[in-house]
Design a protein that fits this description.
This protein is an alpha+beta fold and 70 residues long. The chain is built from 1 helix and 2 strands. It has a two-stranded antiparallel sheet. A hairpin with a 4-residue loop joins strand 1 (28-45) and strand 2 (50-67). The longest helix is centred in the first third of the chain and has 26 residues, at 2-27. The radius of gyration is 29 Å and the shape is rod-shaped. The two termini are 45 Å apart. 0% of the residues are buried.
Length: 70
């Protein structure tokens, strides 16, 4: 009989964890946004008629956590 009781507690605990995960999933959401920027700078040297070009690129990933209002 002890084995039956311990199994029922495990089933009850597992059910509670699953229900909690479902409720959290219903009440919230996640979103991601990727922002990419690029800038180019050109420097000219008149005496040598040479140009130096520099390009800087950045990529930022933003994560948002939303919660459903009640």
């Amino acid at each position: 009989m002890k084995n039956y009781k311990s199994k029922s507690w495990i089933v009850l605990l597992a059910s509670a964890v699953i229900m909690g995960a479902i409720l959290c999933g219903i009440c919230s959401c996640k979103a991601w946004r990727t922002v990419t920027t690029s800038a180019t700078y050109v420097q000219s040297n008149d005496s040598a008629k040479a140009q130096t070009t520099t390009t800087i690129s950045t990529k930022t990933v933003e994560e948002y956590q939303g919660v459903k209002k009640r």
